[in-house]
Amino acid sequence: MMNSVKSMSDKSDKKVDRKDDKKGGVSDVGAWAMNIISSVGIIMANKQVMSAGGYNYRFATTLTAFHFTVTAAVGYISSSLGYSVSKHVPFRDLFLFSLVSNTSIVSMNLSLMLNSVGFYQIAKLSMIPTVCILEWILHNKTYTREVKLSVFVVMIGVGVCTVTDVNVNFKGFMSAVVAVISTSLQQIYIGALQKKHSCGSFELLSKTAPIQAASLLLIGPFVDHILIGEVLLNYTYTAGAIFFILLSCTLAVFCNVSQYLCIGRFSAVTFQVLGHMKTVCVLTLGWILFDSVLTGKNLMGMFMAVVGMITYSWAVEVAKAQAAKSATVKVKEAFREEESLLLRGDADLEYGKSDKE
């Protein structure tokens, strides 16, 4: 009974820590805005870097290694100047996280190469229910009917506006399965590590980025050679290519930081659901900047996705309110039970005194 009261106080302490973290850093809206803007920006920059009409730098895994190298450098400089605090995280946890994360990166690139764009989009959409199932298995987390319904609406909406041709083959299917599971685990792992070691988003990122950068720099050129059949050393770097690669790396720092912020404050499911706002933004910017065609099907899907995201936000807030209400009731019941036990003890003492008299 006392343990239940203590656990409730521990939860309140965590909420206070989270509020203090917000005061000293970025607000919730700011974190989401940073993630959406940086993610959309990096997609546009990478399109210029990797497309045949741009600089044809198709070494995606190596480019990701550059992203984490710059992120690690920013983390080291920030820690050296005293802008961030370095907390101890066991190397075993960092290594396991980096292994899962690198598996996610390589398998996602492999899935994109082996599958049609339509099936690749379906695989990305399946991450939402995969995260839900994994969180239920790993953390015994459950979801309300309203949350499940809103997630379904988001998936249908994004599917309608993005999925076109769907061609499936065995190798592509297996790479997509590995990509979905590893990416889902990576996002769950981010929140779990922050809670386990009581560290902030940037502190954890500063610890994981150097390991990911070193490992991806080693395997990246070989993976890219397998994927596209080209050798990294044969690429001729122009001033324009270097500029857009550096721009991509700069945006990646903000993208990585905001991802850790959002997952740390909310959940991997929320990150997946609201993260599809990026898909809507990319389609809209593609229409504005690159003369991409927006059909009635695209617009209907985008509208459904936005409605689903709004409904999801409402459903999560309702679930939080219900959880807070039930927690308050439990605390009151615990205090009442404790009070009744104390009164009973006092009565027993009084009864003992009267017997002696």
From TrEMBL:
Domain Sugar phosphate transporter spans what residues?
39-313
Its Gene Ontology cellular component terms are:
Golgi apparatus; membrane
Q: Name one GO biological process term.
A: transmembrane transport
Which UniProt keywords are listed?
Membrane, Transmembrane, Transmembrane helix
Organism, per UniProt?
Answer: Physcomitrium patens
Any Pfam family the entry gives:
TPT
Composition bias (Basic and acidic residues) maps to 8-25
Question: Which locations, inside or outside the cell, does it occupy?
Answer: Membrane
Q: Specify the protein's topology with respect to the membrane.
A: Multi-pass membrane protein
GO MF assignments = antiporter activity; nucleotide-sugar transmembrane transporter activity
Query: Which positions, given as ranges, span the membrane?
Result: 25-45, 65-85, 94-112, 149-166, 235-257, 269-290, 296-315
User: Looking at the record, which segments are called Disordered?
Assistant: 1-25
Which PANTHER family did the record assign? SOLUTE CARRIER FAMILY 35 (PTHR11132)
Name-wise, this protein is Sugar phosphate transporter domain-containing protein
InterPro entries registered for this protein in UniProt:
EmrE-like, Sugar_P_trans_dom, TPT_transporter
